[in-house]
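Hi all, long-time lurker, first post. I run a small reading group and we've been trying to get comfortable going from sequence to structure in the token notation. Rather than ask abstract questions, I figured I'd post a concrete chain and ask someone more experienced to write out its structure so we can walk through it together at our next meeting. Sequence below, copied exactly:
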Amino acid sequence: MRILQLCPRVPFPPHDGGAIAMYDVAAGLAQAGHHVTVLAINTPKHHQPATVLDHLGPNVRLLTVDVDTNLSPIKALRNFLFSELPYNVERFVSEKVKVKLAELLGQEQFDVVQMEGTFVAWYAGYWIENGAVSWKNLPPVVLRAHNVEYTIWEQLARNAGNTLKKWYLQKLAQRLKLFEKWMMHRFDAVAAITEADRQRLRQQGCQEPVVFIPAGVDLTRFRPEPAVLPRPRTLCMIGSLNWLPNLEGLDWFLTQVWPRLAERLPELELHVAGTGMPERLRQLRLPGVTMHGFVESAADFMRTYELMLVPLLSGGGMRVKIIEGMALGKAILSTALGAEGIHCRPGHNILLADDPEEWVRLLEDYYHGRLDVAALGTQAAQTAAELYDNRRVVARFEQLYQQVAAGRPVSC
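-- Answer (accepted) --
Happy to help. Here is the structure in token form:
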């Protein structure tokens, strides 16, 4: 099949959940013999050369369009006063992208178009305005719903302490909810990345077929290494720290949990890594805490430390870093929201807790050897291999594409 994949950023390097999910699907489809054209908005934050996916071979072609998606207070105010679009969607709307899409669809034959998430979903309604393509010639269009975005901003608004910030986030969440409800009717099928998000989309009134296809892990990159022994009494956190929910969760852990641990558990270490680490965290000096910033290999970083933490208070979709940690055989402590959408059972292949007191209790148990982290990791690795191997995920996309391309009902 010939697949056109529209991405809100170049999906390389695969260092954060969104990039990993887009990259692994493109790579997996190419390995399965399909031809994938990746049309990516090339943002200032993640700008990459057009050759960056050449290592995936001739079945993958990357086309980029430069778009200035940088945050601007003036543009945000203008958007708030004069537009109905959410500002975090409007930033990705570009005439150049519309023209390139229409050009591709007018000159080439594709079996299916896949749009990666809310921030490029806008193009499903407006990509033919320049007249280069007629509706009847469009291939089926699938939305891959990485998140139900409005729920993330609702959670951020609830947790915000500043009144003005809370009000603005509430308004943004309301606009996102209306936009996501509108956009769902522009697709032939929607692939939700978690079962919980699939149910949310249904509750919003999505009438199109909505299927659940999780994120996957390339098990050639993430697998247990028995010869690599993690350092005892060490905790690690890794994730993109320019994503507000990750930053919110880290701040919560450092203020609500870590001070009590540092008093009681003097040999405990916390290691934090991630792209986009704010300067205030780089300069943070807390006993036992090391801020690594960006690390070249997430797998090597996670292998070094014994217990992985995911203190997420807001968010949607699936935490790919948890899947990667499970595939590596890591014991993981997460909030329930952090592990949402992942097939896990507390005390079997993961640890779950939501309030600071419970986090402190579990981490004290870990410190004093009362938790069998090796057994948790073994079960986690087995779960990842059985359910989240990227080859299984790609096979589910192939089935979805075949169904929509043939005009057959999609199995939900």
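A couple of things your group might point at:
The radius of gyration is 21 Å.
The first strand starts at residue 2 and ends at 7.
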